[in-house]
Amino acid sequence: MTRRSIPAPVLACIAAVLAVGCSSERHDTVTEVPAPLDVVTQGALESGMPAFSQREDGILLSHLERRSDETWTLRVTELTADGRFASAADVTDGDDFFVNWADFPSVTAVGREGAGWVAHWLQRGPTGGYDYAVRLARSDDRGATWTEPWTPHEDGTPTEHGFVSVLPVGDDYEVIWLDGRTFAEGANRMQLRARRGGAEGAVGPERIVDDLVCDCCQTDVAATPSGAVAVYRNRTDAEIRDVHVATWNRASDAWVDLGPVREDGWEIAGCPVNGPAVAADGAATTVAWFTAADDEPSVYVAVGAGGGGDYGAAVRVDRGSPVGRVDVRFGPEGDPRVLWMEALADGRAELLLARVRSDRSVDAPVRVAELDAARGSGFPRFVMLPDGAALVAWTDLTGDVRRLRTLRIEAP
Fold first, then answer.
1. Has residue 6 been placed in a domain?
2. Nearest by Cα to 411 from 326, 335, 350
3. Which residues make Cβ contacts (< 8 Å) with residue 285, sequence separation at least 6?
4. Is the dihedral of CA 236, 191, 251, 283 positive or negative?
5. I need a labelling partner for 262 at 20 to 30 A (CA). Which of 7, 96, 289, 328 fits?
């Protein structure tokens, strides 16, 4: 599969310009965070590529560590009630991991009792390149033991399978992933597929959510009272790659593509490797995404009700030169918080966190950190803590060495 890179974004200052239909107010002041960085891991040659899982009874942070030239380890840490990290535990390791700056593993809390965790990681295939598979394993004792891993896709083709999102469904879980099996037939059509997993592996058959999607943008999923909302970057035959939303209904057990969150009309003949994020607060959902439609890089946030598909006018939050790599969560008062990277000079970027208020104004962002804008810095992630603070995790890139960093941002 051939991958083409996105053209270099226009970095001209456009901080005061809003897209048509958006009348939000944005503040130019950036609030600095004086607190030092908290290094979660020590001793590994490299660490990074974080992912959070959050529910009422706790928070999990997973990441990768490289301990030798070839061996990588997937680790998970549980956040304790006092807001500290417990010691990290190993999930699995191997010298055949597919390690990629944009397609990273996760550990998700599942089950009604709170002790269930589901891990996913990526395993290289024998042909190399973008031949890799999704592997899943489950623990029902908070990571002390794990089941034998299984693979949700059964096609067996030496093609890309990744960009996974995992959704808890009672004691089971729903998995969605990008599936490249049609590339083996010369069709050049990446699919979005889904499958249910249970205590020992697959529960139901594979299902197609969307038959043509962008090749290598992250997916995301959030639970709603009626089922779930998934977001991903779609692709049309005319190479329009806007962010779509799909819903999963618990009663019918069916995924339905509801179309774009907003019709940006971004035409690009290649994957920008810059996926959307979604969060839910009851029936309300919020989506954050990056677009460079009309050669104008932008980061937007939209809020919808009723489980997705009905989003109001999008609010632009960036300061004029966004790199993207977004994440989004609801705050305790019901307003979204959005995290993104904004380009600076000389290949650097700043990591910003901002609140979007119900009147569609955007608070002055918090400057979480300065970091390298290169691919090795990966995709920062965050969660909201019960006391209103935000916990941010990202990969700090110094030269060719990656280090996992976390930082607590106190509530205003």
1. no
2. 335
3. 222, 224, 229, 278, 279, 303, 304, 305, 307, 308
4. negative
5. 7
**How many degrees, rounded to 5, is the angle at CA 15 between CA 351 and CA 318?**
35
Give the residue among 362, 296, 370 at the shortest CA–CA distance from 328: 362
Asked if 392 and 50 touch (Cβ cutoff 8 Å), the reply is no
Q: Please name the helix (run of DSSP H) or strand (run of DSSP E) that holds residue 404, with its range, or none.
A: strand 401-409
CB-CB neighbours of 304 under 10 Å? 21
180: left (phi over 0), alpha (psi -120 to 50) or beta: alpha
CA-CA-CA-CA torsion sign (255, 229, 49, 115): negative
Q: Is 15 part of a structural domain of the chain? A: no
Tokens found for residue 164: 């996974």
Q: What is the spatial distance between Cα 255 and Cα 257, in angstroms, rounded to a whole number?
A: 7
pLDDT tens column, 325-380: 999 999 999 999 999 999 999 999 999 999 999 999 999 999 999 999 999 999 99
Among candidate residues 110, 104, 55, 33, the one with its CA nearest the CA of residue 329: 55
Of residues 240, 234, 230, 229, the one with CA closest to residue 217:
234
* 191 lies in some domain: yes
The range of the structural domain enclosing residue 193 comes to 31-409
Q: Which residues contact 209 (CB under 8 A, 6 or more apart)?
A: 176, 191, 192, 193, 194, 230, 246, 255, 257
14 assigned to some structural domain = no
**CATH number for the domain harbouring residue 227:** 2.120.10.10
pTM: predicted TM-score of the whole model, two decimal places: 0.90
Strand partners, 49: none
Count of domains for the chain: 1
- The rounded distance, in Å, linking the Cα atoms of 392 and 408 is 6
Q: In angstroms, rounded to a whole number, what is the distance separating the alpha carbons of residues 338 and 324?
A: 11
Contacts 24+ apart (CB under 8 A), 133-136: 133/161, 134/161, 134/162, 134/164, 134/175, 134/177, 136/175, 136/197, 136/201
- Pairing verdict, β 58-66 and 89-94: unpaired
**Band of pLDDT at residue 393, cut at 50, 70 and 90:** very high
